[in-house]
Hints:
- The chain has 322 residues and is mainly beta.
- Helices cover 3% and strands 44% of the residues.
- It has a single domain, classed as 5 Propeller (Tachylectin-2, Chain A), CATH 2.115.10.
Amino acid sequence: xKRFRLAALLAAAVVALLPSTxxxxxxxxxxxxxxxQQIIHDPTVIRLKSGDYVAYSTGGVIGARLSxxxxxxxxxxxAFAEPPSWWYEYNDTGDPWAPDISYRAGKYWLYYAxxxxxTNHSAIGVATSRTGRPGTWTDHGKVFTSExxxxxxxxxxxxxxxDGRLWMTFGSYWTGIRMVxxxxxxxxxxxxxxxxxxxxRPDAPYAVEGPYVVKHGRYYYLFASYDTCCAGVNSxxxxxxxxxxxxxxxxxxxxxxxxxxxxxxxxxxGHGRYIGTGGQSVFRDRGQDWLAYHYYDAxxxxxxxxxxxxxxxxxxxxxxxx
Length: 322
């Protein structure tokens, strides 16, 4: 990571001169070069107390990657040795999707979704670990569910603490992105909690998913993936962002257009060999924000791979990919 420090300083100087509207650079930066096990989908990344980095992802029984420096990654098996039995209520293979890792109250929390393609008969689950390493997780069952009678889809969870409360964003297609409050002790949805609506699109099938919210300055920023995932080189995934002064919204883009009306500033989309950038999360490492995502490698038959880029912020508080 050292070789990126000078570039980051120079880029930050340029960012400070950018105009107030959050306009993505049309050239789009390439992801940081990485080696080792690059294959990944829907990554969530954290620096463990041990100093190692771990990335969990869709694939396997929540696939795991380990790194000493974020540049070289090794395959580390799976979060779980085998699927918990309740996963089979939601698909035949016990296949979990889109994990999210966080740390609080002296332990790591791993949220994930179980569902089947094209249905909102879905559930979000949670597990905890003292170390965060694969093979050490204890599952605690369902956090929140959706059924075909609901207007949302309980997949793609992401956790954020705000104003002393714990929140989970989630959602995919149907009516888009939602948020619900969690009990901080159990990590599960507060019974009867309001399901807040954060973002959608005016056009069916409402292709927005994979939300992730972070706090920067006085704003909360909602990152989400738009358009088509999981189609290799034909994927059209892209990452958009909006912000709000309240955790539950309303979120708007730099022009003031609400994300509930299809708004959102384009942060990163496919370019060159890097097709369908999305499934994103944000992690903070020693004072620096990083964007983690997957892309489909056009020079490797559309194989999904790990993308990592630094995130900087304009003087008006909009994120920029470096």
